[in-house]
């Protein structure tokens, strides 16, 4: 959620109804406020922060016209979870967002995730499980990744992402659904948002009605690095730095603000 401009750009370009986010880095004390502040206009959010230490956290951002009900679970040791029922009339979707930290035990994850699947397997809602599993399934899955695929297949779930989602070329961000639900039309992987690429999931249901609202963002990904560095080298901060600390700070703030406005001006669109 420190990528608010990029989040707004993603909403403007992809026009999603629902966003599932991992590694929010929100905390139990400030998470609600920070998440509300970064929600695009017309969207609401729910989240589950990591309770014990920095990092992690999962969230769902959704159009405010969608009815959302959360389900509670005991804390898992090997992964983080937010579990929601979404009402997109006439269908109901059970959405689970999972984040498995890279260092978590494979064996504990296998047992805990299988236990979760047992709990939700008989839901009458259309089931959708998404998230960053930090297990690469591309080409030749390793043992832990193959066990995950075998376990989900045993519960009638199919994994739908087929293109790399991480800058290292791995498929770490996964989408599981039941074929019998006929919920997902297709998936596609978008441009890099961070070291991960967003996965766009197209659902077989009507998009909820949503009034047009303005959203502002900067196209930071379109900045030409060479031109940006060229202009930085010509700032007064570099060519004629002030001897006074307050003036030096002003040179820094004003100079960088002017460069951002030049190379990535604020764009406002109705979405």
UniProtKB/TrEMBL annotation:
One Pfam family it belongs to: Exo_endo_phos
Molecular-function GO terms, alphabetical: catalytic activity
Domain of life: Eukaryota
Record SUPFAM superfamilies: DNase I-like
Domain Endonuclease/exonuclease/phosphatase: residue ranges: 3-196
Gene3D superfamilies per the UniProt record, alphabetical: Endonuclease/exonuclease/phosphatase
Record-given protein name: Endonuclease/exonuclease/phosphatase domain-containing protein
Species lineage: Eukaryota, Metazoa, Ecdysozoa, Arthropoda, Crustacea
């Amino acid at each position: 959620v420190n990528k608010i401009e990029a989040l707004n750009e993603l909403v403007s370009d992809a026009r999603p109804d629902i966003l599932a986010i991992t590694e929010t880095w929100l905390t139990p004390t400030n998470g609600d406020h920070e998440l509300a502040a970064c929600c695009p206009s017309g969207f609401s959010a729910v989240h589950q922060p990591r309770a014990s230490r920095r990092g992690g956290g999962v969230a769902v951002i959704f159009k405010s016209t969608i009815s959302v009900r959360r389900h509670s679970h005991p804390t898992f040791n090997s992964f983080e979870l937010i579990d929601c029922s979404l009402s997109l009339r006439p269908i109901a979707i059970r959405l689970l967002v999972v984040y498995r930290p890279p260092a978590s035990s494979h064996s504990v994850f296998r047992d805990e995730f299988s236990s979760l699947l047992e709990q939700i397997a008989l839901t009458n809602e259309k089931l959708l499980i998404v998230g960053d599993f930090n297990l690469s399934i591309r080409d030749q899955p390793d043992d832990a990744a193959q066990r995950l695929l075998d376990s989900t297949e045993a519960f009638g779930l199919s994994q739908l992402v087929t293109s790399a989602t991480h800058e290292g070329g791995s498929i770490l961000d996964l989408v599981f659904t039941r074929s019998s639900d006929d919920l997902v039309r297709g998936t596609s992987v978008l441009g890099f948002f961070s070291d991960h690429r967003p996965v766009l999931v197209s659902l077989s249901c009507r998009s909820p009605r949503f009034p047009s609202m303005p959203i502002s963002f900067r196209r930071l990904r379109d900045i030409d690095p060479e031109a940006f560095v060229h202009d930085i080298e010509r700032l007064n901060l570099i060519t004629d730095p002030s001897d006074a600390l307050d003036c030096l700070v002003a040179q820094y703030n004003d100079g960088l603000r002017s460069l951002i406005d030049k190379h990535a001006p604020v764009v406002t669109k109705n979405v």
